[in-house]
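Predict the 3D structure for this chain.
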Amino acid sequence: MLIRQITSNTEAGTDEAGRGCLAGPVTAAAVILPIHFDLNELNDSKKLTEKKRYELRPLIENKSIAFSYAHVFPEEIDQINILNASIKAMHLALSKLSLPINFIAVDGNRFHSFESVPHQCIIKGDGKYQNIAAASVLAKTYRDDYMEKIHQKFPQYSWDQNKGYPTKAHRKAIAEYGPNLHHRKSFQLLPKQLQLPLSATS
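Done. Predicted structure below.
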């Protein structure tokens, strides 16, 4: 059971996934849950197994009043930096909700005002607020779906396993094959002693 219950049918929770990845988009979700919503197994998506996240996603979507998600892709991440890209993804998700909102609960400690709607940043909010936890599950699973999709074209990076995070196997593949168009060129893709010229292979 998460600490805070929903108090309004016009309150949205938002969270992002993929901020620390070397490849792929940063993905955010926004969720409006009904008052008295209760899903005992819901938690911060990082504390759930992949199987459990995908089990919870349809339950969240079916029980929610509204939900949405949005990607911001590597080219834009490199242009505006990962913090601004994460906030932009949350704004995009919020803008896609089918209902107006009067309050936003945000995971983390940084956010830019969205359409003059009051908001509150909550550090580790995905373990405290049910609507943020729900958004974290949706953001993580929809981002993973995208990484599975691009893995089909670029299997050498094993994105079906590492989802773009900086694992040893992912860095080894970058060293061997070089970065491609899905890599974030503004990130340190390899340790300095192994750095390669950055190219956008396809």
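The radius of gyration is 17 Å.
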